[in-house]
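INFO batch 0412 | record 1 of 1 | parsing
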Amino acid sequence: MRTIILSDKDFDLVHTFDCGQCFRWEESGGAFIGVAGGYWGRFEKTAEGISLTTNCPDDNFWIEYLDLERDYGQVKEAVGLNPLMIKAVEYGSGIRILKQEFFETLMSYIISQRSSIPKIKSTVKKLCEKYGRRIDVEGEYYTFPTPEELKAVTEEDYRALGCGYRARYLAECVKAVLEGRISRDMLSGQTTADARAKLMELCGVGDKVCDCVMLFSLARYDLFPSDVWIKRVMCEQFGSSDKSAKADGEKLFGEYSGFAQQYLFYYRRNMES
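INFO prediction complete | emitting tokens
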């Protein structure tokens, strides 16, 4: 175990871990505790910055995961195109887009379909506890299971965890990964359009799931995932329709589309909660 201090410049724990992009971090007494990339971590805000206690031996893992080398001041300036975006950026000023593991992100967003964030977190947690590797650090935690660890898991097993109709999609996803029909390396070498088309060949992966997986695990920041909250704000403030919200967002924000989407999503969802 080791503790390192990270800069809190453009980095807020609640904004980053509770903005809807990830499902493995839980708040406890002001700290956020969870597992990423097989490593356990506990983040706390201190007078010196963000204190991270972890069993990971390599600082670079967390630097990459938290996107700490990016100048988010530049990002905010680029997306602050109007008064609404300025408000959204101010509201979620500490959001950093995490670079999550591809398979975990894919499975988690398949689980996320037509579900609430608390339910998604609960289901993902059950999956990890049932099939992941146990980590005993300040309690009992689990890694996200690998495709190999899920090889023998059936649709019925997924249903028993509360995955419902998504059970078939999850089983098919694991099979596709194990057979080499989809992988991070395969998609990383393709254009965004080609990678989207390939990913959407998977059973149960539609526009929203595809865009979220690519944004949060493949760093395709030119994508603008569109859900009910994004469609609502794009219709209200930008004159879009439900069908045009995604395309309008990507045209408006370009290479910063994914960042703009997160600021808008976090702002609009919390304004109505």
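INFO post-check: The first helix runs from residue 13 to 17.
INFO record closed
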